């Protein structure tokens, strides 16, 4: 079968393309944002990429078109699909019908940490010989690929609350029907489709409704919004996690930056995680992965051993260069809480060394100006925060300066690079934070500093 995918370079749709190729289908796709690492991954899989959305991209007469949720009516390729009467489906529905049927699905949901936790859990299963299938919204370094079909009854998936397609406004995760469900956390996000936090809670409640009574839900004890969701109705056992507290599953920090911690189940020591990751958010991610792994039969001590060899995900505080006393990081920041927790972990790791955060507020929620004060406050652990304001931003980022004194606004990438060249003489840690390509600043900055 010839499957054509619209929005193929998105992390989710790109993963679908890889799995469809592994199922033996001919796969092509189009996107207006074709850049690494996803474009490179797809080309290595023998998938034909077309840049831009045009009706002629469909002249190959595909048997099925999978339409990504970033596309809507008015898009020329979407209009051609409808006008030509081609078969089409959303990505989550195709995955549910052709891959997840009869699988033990382990779904990882939450505003933050989905990609990292899904990667951890997939790696634990892999380390123990389970050979799981997975679909991850990033490229885990332990695997070097964001998705695979696998050769077992287990499939680990990043369960996103974003909508499925222009013709299916349900959250993606409603399609997946997990037996093991991790609910990492819940905050207001995706302001372009959800009017308020209660609307997101309702979608999470719909997810909870699909988890069987013999399944398992895993969530942090202290997350009030997740607790609200569970109070709306829950028919499944719930395992709670905590840090330095007394939940059923607890992490006792040895190092304050989260690089070493003991794991306790029912107050019984299970082992010590020692790894390269930092931040309490990653400690919570690890705990959830350990609990989920136990649900499929992996002992905590074996999961802990696997995490000791976990290499994280591309673009999650990935060190991309060290040049003349400056360490440059690439971090996939999309929300103020993610920025805050990441910088907190780095601060605890590097002490008083200089940290400069360079932020492109690219997610729909930040571009709409929903998180003005919280965005400013999230940058408190940086000695300097440089925020990129392109012409089409829609609101004046200068408002951030009302809430923090360490913020500078730049309207061009050239201004940012020139400022960083000046700051580089003092050394430190430059954290580039964006969920997009950031105009290619990653390589340009390295070239300039060299």
From TrEMBL:
Gene3D superfamilies assigned to the protein according to its UniProt record, in alphabetical order: Mur ligase, C-terminal domain, Mur-like, catalytic domain, NAD(P)-binding Rossmann-like Domain
Highest taxon in the source lineage: Bacteria
Requisite cofactors: Mg(2+)
UniProt-annotated binding residues for ATP: 110-116
GO function terms (MF aspect): ATP binding; UDP-N-acetylmuramate-L-alanyl-gamma-D-glutamyl-meso-2,6-diaminoheptanedioate ligase activity
Pathway membership, UniProt: Cell wall biogenesis; peptidoglycan recycling
InterPro entries on file: Mpl, Mur-like_cat_sf, Mur_ligase_C, Mur_ligase_C_dom_sf, Mur_ligase_cen, Mur_ligase_N, MurCDEF_pg_biosynth
Domain Mur ligase N-terminal catalytic residues, every copy: 2-100
Domain Mur ligase C-terminal: residue ranges: 315-436
Keyword set, alphabetical order: ATP-binding, Cell cycle, Cell division, Cell shape, Cell wall biogenesis/degradation, Ligase, Magnesium, Nucleotide-binding, Peptidoglycan synthesis
EC number: 6.3.2.45
Residues covered by the Mur ligase central domain: 108-293
Catalytically driven reaction(s): UDP-N-acetyl-alpha-D-muramate + L-alanyl-gamma-D-glutamyl-meso-2,6-diaminopimelate + ATP = UDP-N-acetyl-alpha-D-muramoyl-L-alanyl-gamma-D-glutamyl-meso-2,6-diaminopimelate + ADP + phosphate + H(+)
GO biological process: cell division; cell wall organization; peptidoglycan biosynthetic process; peptidoglycan turnover; regulation of cell shape
Protein function: Reutilizes the intact tripeptide L-alanyl-gamma-D-glutamyl-meso-diaminopimelate by linking it to UDP-N-acetylmuramate.
UniProt family annotation: Belongs to the MurCDEF family. Mpl subfamily.
Protein known as: UDP-N-acetylmuramate--L-alanyl-gamma-D-glutamyl-meso-2,6-diaminoheptandioate ligase
